[in-house]
Amino acid sequence: MKTVSLAIALILAAGAALAQSRPSTTNMTCRAANAMVQSRGAVVLSTGRDLYDRYVRGQEYCGPGEAARATFVPSADNPRCFIGFRCVAPSYDMR
């Protein structure tokens, strides 16, 4: 019985860890959001309700065939904050 109780407790703890929310740019200053990307190299950040993406410091964090594109997101103090870059697959209509 102890083994089953322990297993259930571990499963619940793992589920709670997965349910934790990611940092939101709308709760940070522009400088803080940009600093987080710069210090970590790559990070997944929320930019609004049910919106999130992976932001990177530069091209070296993109996969083969991807390009780093400058990205602007809303922050607590700037509606168009330069956060860093997003890795995107090239397409014919990119300008």
Characterization of the model:
There is one protein chain. This protein has 95 residues and is an alpha+beta fold. It has a domain of 66 residues. It contains 2 helices and 4 strands, in the order ααββββ. It has a two-stranded antiparallel sheet with strand order 1-2. A two-stranded antiparallel ribbon has the order 3-4. Strand 3 and strand 4 form a beta hairpin. The radius of gyration is 18 Å and the shape is globular.
Can you give keywords for this protein?
95 residues, two-stranded antiparallel sheet
Would you spell out the secondary-structure blueprint of this structure?
Blueprint: H1 2-19, H2 30-40, E1 42-48, E2 51-56, E3 67-73, E4 81-88
Antiparallel strand pairs: 1-2, 3-4
Question: What's this model, at a glance?
Answer:
It is built from two helices and four strands.
> Helical element count?
2
- Fraction of residues in helices? 25-40%
The residue-averaged pLDDT reads 84
- What low-confidence regions span 5 or more consecutive residues with pLDDT below 50? 14-19
Shape: globular
Supply Rg: 18 Å
Share in β-strands: 25-35%
* Strand order in the largest sheet: 1-2
Our measurement of the CA-to-CA distance between the termini, rounded to an integer number of angstroms, reads 63 Å
Structural class: alpha+beta
Number of strands: 4
Element pattern in H and E? HHEEEE
Q: Main sheet? A: 2 strands, antiparallel
